[in-house]
Amino acid sequence: MAPLLTALWVAPLAGSALVVAVPASRPLAAKYTALGVSTVVLAIVGVLLIRFDPSDPQYQFVEKHSWIRSFGASYLVGLDGVAMVLVVLTAVLMPLLLLAGWNDVQRPGESAVYLALMLVVESMMLIALVALDVLLFFAFFEAMLIPMYFLIGRYGGEGAPRAALKFLLYSLFGGLFMFVALIGLNLIAKTFDFRAITATVSAGQLTANPVVMHLLFVGFLLAFAVKAPLWPLHTWLPGLAAEATPATAVLMMAVVDKIGTFGMLRYCLQLFPGSATLFRPFVIALAVIGIGYGALVAIGQSDVIRVIAYTSISHFGFIVLGIFAMTSQGQSGAALYMVNHGLSTAALFLIAGFLVSRRGTRLIADYGGVQQVAPVLAGTFLVAGMASLALPGLAPFVSEFLVLIGTFTRYPMVAVCAATALVLSAIYILWLYQRMMTGPVADGNHRVCDLLPRELAVVVPLLAMLIALGVYPKPALDVINPSIEHLAEHHVTNAG
């Protein structure tokens, strides 16, 4: 069998070198090279998706090679249903983000580096998703901080260096705890092979003091909670979203942050089922607080970009709630929510970014009457906003509904509290649209032009996918559900 998973992450990494090699005097060639590389990655994902067997809950396309034999570490990669849909999300969004950020960097010679860093992040994200060796996962989970730091700090606004540093420090703080926990896990299990460790857990042969296992679980959870981000470890996100370029901010919120919730679902629940059950009420409480907090704070923002950033904090609360509700419906909804949030946030944030780039301000008060001068921009913003508040018929509704139903079967009052965020989300999205898009045209908005063909090429596919998954989510759920059922069976068997 061809090493498709190796090709999956090597292609964007090698492509980044090609982009940098393009002469600085030919920035357009660098852009088309990056776009071509991302299209090749998308084609590889298409082959994987065609060959993937949705009915098989086991890992597929497995590749294994010796790496650090003395540590029990290997180059071990494979795909299950949850990783598959996130790989698809990453590969689909990258060409759109490259198009969206086509003119983000104007400095001579800098455009190629910017695009290359985007491809490096894609490569590291993909290998982290397919890694079945815990040390291999951790290496790229941490390594992706470096290109993200430069994407934020070097190419963002005036406050970008500070936002990038805050993001880096928070992430390194969480990663330190995970590194210590990883060493402890290896000392107990004598291997980094994720499949071998979970098999040992299932056989009841992973013998260790329960307190030690709880501490190891907390180490993993902290790293993933920072990356997700889960309240109260979220404070790095709003500043980053406001200062980074729109394409970089979407890369973080729609793609990279998913590695945090993915890690909770795969590693926290399967490696430490007993600890996950013990800490479940605590994590659920943080998730519900995050849902309400993100929605309430979004209502009070005067900056359109910060509104969208705080809505993401609320959405991540829903994803974590679905994961730790520990029902098959809740976890299927959480996995689907990762995909749907990526699409809806990308659409809403990029459209807002296009508008801000025209007007030169993020303040909501500076807008008004945009729908009169840019009706297509206003209309697409409305559809993306409706997706963000989970309107029926659009993709996030299905995932949010599954999370709430899955939570309600076990924690009715928690589900009721979380559902109140639906009302709050309607307030901040509709109010945002009303203040920015309706009414008389405000001073300075008469020159705002409508979406350009390149921008439509970014927005239209995102809205089409939101509608398609809202009307017919079955293909995505058919890929996700077998893996979730297998995970739930493993957790129920070993949680006690």
TrEMBL record:
Domain spans labelled NADH:quinone oxidoreductase/Mrp antiporter transmembrane: 131-423
Listed name of the protein: NADH-quinone oxidoreductase subunit M
Pfam families associated with the record: Proton_antipo_M
Gene Ontology molecular-function annotations: NADH dehydrogenase (ubiquinone) activity; NADH dehydrogenase activity; ubiquinone binding
Superkingdom: Bacteria
Keyword Flavoprotein among record annotations: no
Protein family per UniProt: Belongs to the complex I subunit 4 family.
Coiled-coil intervals: none
GO annotation (BP), single: ATP synthesis coupled electron transport
GO cellular component: endomembrane system; membrane
Organism whose genome encodes this protein: Mycobacterium intermedium
Sorted UniProt keywords: Membrane, Transmembrane, Transmembrane helix
Record localization: Endomembrane system; Membrane
NCBIfam families associated with the record: NDH_I_M, PRK05846.1-4
